[in-house]
Write a sequence for this structure.
């Protein structure tokens, strides 16, 4: 189609379309599609899209509109056809948190149980880490590759862990970058379209969504997290996909590590039946649902049994070894996760200033400590240091004595640790009484 | 100041400033000023300003914020210093209507009464005409010129009728063009800042505002017109100026003409004590207030007397002759307005299809008819034809017989008239009963 043709499909001007959204009227699916196509073709300017995004922030969208926007964004690029791959293809998406390395253990477990996992992940930004950055801590591991390779690996091994290519949902890439600099990120229909357009372009049949709630998450309160979960489940169904969403707590970091290599190593521990309890719990919760949606288990109990067997039998480890080998890494690191931890760093303990119970660990604060010591980035063009990070030595509910370590900072230079020491200590709340345990899962949303 | 320094004056990022407005928080005056300066310096992008404008559309601004925005926009360019010109300088602004040629008779009348009028006007766009286009129907009349000439003419003659130069409020020019294509025009704080920033940059001491209300006006209902008027009066006072606003009706066109040369000729008729009643009434209303604010009259009755004398004595005609001569035109056209009507056009009558009373004349529809026959423009880079237009032969309340003329179209080619004939006829509502007269002035707002 010629470059200047999308706007001619609209029966009104772009300012009129923006005004329609501004005035709270629904926009026709066809018109949204023309608008999105025109945006990618640069017939609609960034300033017009920014005004539209802000109007959407205030007026929202009806489910059918959000679905239309999602499908238009999906169709702005290549939609991978996985119909040639046997089985019900199921992916997982997390809205991102601190210490969230679940994808790295979840994908091989689910694939080992016979459900194909076509997973396209992202990079870290701000206080939240990214699966691609963590995987790249495996020497030689490649997250880029053609759609052909992605599909071939999925067929052969049952799992591909790739990064988003320029071909997938370019409208989302362009719109997301714009929203980031125009204060229009926090809009449920726009978040829905952003997440789902990419996932639908992967060619999935079903999706399990982990919406993190709390201080360390994108969604700070349960109500807005629920609204987002419901929106994605609803729009996913309108697009003909099975979608389940969980709301899970993200006040303290997930697991005991924040950083790239150490998080991947910790995820590998889970494949061996080890690793921290909260990480195992979160991984199992999502794996069970993926197996149910993938049709290999009917009940949660059946699914749990499959997960446990995949770990106990070594099938999960073997699956990850196949994935690492296929994507250019040395599969030996899966059997021996400590191999991922390279030297060249200093380890600096973070000590408790008084005795007490750890009540709370501020995931947001530690996420930013991670950024400051080089484990994360604040701009998408920055690189990350795979080898630095934070190891938690105490978790909520643990008792610590004055002078005992709360955490360990892994840094390139000791002065980096000194610069973040106060923030790190202050991220831990110590109290005289043992805090109540709070459940990881807050809600399950299936419709 | 170096080009990249404005953003460094902000204690937060631009997206955070946008989010502040989005979340309904007030923005500090200093921050708004840095933001506006950064926008003019292209440190803030158009897409960020578009998001800010849309957030402002929804959240509004407090009076102090609107004042700060107005002053920042005023100070984005040259602020003319008229302190060397004697007297209280008073200008008038109209929000624009169809057939609104008031400035052209108002300015010389007020100046003839001894109040200096430094008037900077705009061009027509869409269904509303512009004073500059009308003035340029006078052969040789120049609306451009340096600030020095503007001030010198004001000192000497008491009135300058110029166009906006690039030096005046560049932030407004840039922002207005952006709002026009992002559906963010209809925001009271943004309209306030746009109007007042330019007027304050003229160096005025006082302003009379004519807010048109009705179908042919920018403000369709009295409530939003009142809100705009109150906002401008309030912000004008915060800026230390005397401001009075009138809400006046704009359902039917003002006067009997729509077009450039014919409107200027009609405005000149008023200087001779002739011309249509509604135009005389509107001009007198605004003139009285300008004379009061300008300190040459204490009461409306005194002011009215001065206006009548200026017309009866020929002083108003003489003042306009001085202005036309000073700005490059032939002053003889003021004494004989029919000289403005050149040949080369066709006159096509618009006939009543039935007998009855003219109940209503749709100013908006006739405004667009004017655009279609060449008297107006839809894009700011188009030129207008000075010699075409519409002459009303019947006004609301008049009785017409079937086959009698309702109006006359002055066109370049007869086919132009044919193309708009139906629209023109349909703009007139004919009814069996004589409609009630409605007053021109709806409200006066002084605070």
């Amino acid at each position: 189609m010629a470059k200047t043709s999308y706007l001619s499909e609209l029966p009104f001007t772009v300012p009129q379309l923006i005004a329609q959204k501004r005035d709270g009227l629904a926009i026709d699916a066809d018109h949204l599609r023309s608008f999105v196509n025109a945006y990618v073709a640069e017939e609609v300017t960034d300033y017009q899209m920014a005004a539209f995004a802000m109007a959407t922030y205030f007026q929202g969208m009806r489910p059918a509109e959000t679905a239309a926007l999602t499908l238009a964004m999906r169709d702005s690029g290549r939609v991978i056809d996985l119909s040639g791959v046997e089985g019900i293809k199921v992916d997982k998406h997390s809205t991102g948190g601190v210490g969230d390395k679940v994808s790295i253990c979840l994908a091989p477990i689910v694939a080992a149980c016979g459900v194909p996992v076509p997973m396209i992940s992202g990079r870290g930004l701000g206080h939240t880490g990214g699966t691609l950055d963590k995987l790249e801590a495996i020497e030689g591991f490649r997250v880029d590759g053609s759609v052909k390779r992605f599909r071939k690996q999925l067929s052969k091994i049952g799992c591909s862990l790739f990064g988003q290519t320029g071909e997938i949902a370019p409208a989302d890439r362009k719109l997301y970058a714009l929203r980031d600099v125009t204060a229009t990120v926090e809009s449920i229909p726009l978040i829905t379209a952003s997440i789902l357009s990419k996932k639908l372009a992967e060619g999935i049949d079903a999706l399990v969504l982990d919406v993190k709630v709390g201080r360390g998450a994108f969604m700070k309160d349960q109500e807005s997290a629920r609204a987002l979960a419901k929106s994605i489940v609803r729009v996913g169904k309108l697009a003909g996909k099975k979608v389940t969403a969980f709301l899970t707590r993200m006040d303290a970091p997930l697991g005991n590590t924040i950083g790239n290599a150490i998080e991947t190593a910790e995820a590998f521990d889970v494949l061996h039946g080890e690793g921290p309890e909260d990480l195992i719990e979160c991984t199992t919760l999502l794996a069970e649902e993926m197996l149910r949606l993938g049709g290999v288990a009917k009940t949660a109990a059946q699914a749990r049994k499959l997960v446990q067997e995949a770990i106990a039998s070594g099938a999960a480890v073997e699956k990850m070894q196949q994935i690492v080998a296929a994507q250019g890494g040395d599969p030996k690191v899966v059997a021996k996760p400590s191999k991922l931890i390279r030297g060249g760093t200093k380890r600096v303990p973070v000590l408790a200033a008084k005795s007490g119970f750890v009540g709370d660990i501020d995931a947001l604060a530690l996420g930013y400590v991670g950024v400051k010591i080089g484990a994360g980035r604040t701009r998408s063009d920055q690189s990350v240091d795979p080898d630095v990070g934070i190891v938690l030595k105490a978790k909520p509910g643990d008792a610590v004595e004055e002078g005992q370590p709360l955490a360990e900072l892994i840094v390139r230079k000791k002065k980096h640790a000194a610069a973040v020491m106060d923030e790190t200590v202050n991220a831990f709340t110590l109290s005289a009484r043992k805090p109540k345990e709070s459940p990881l899962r807050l809600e399950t949303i299936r419709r």
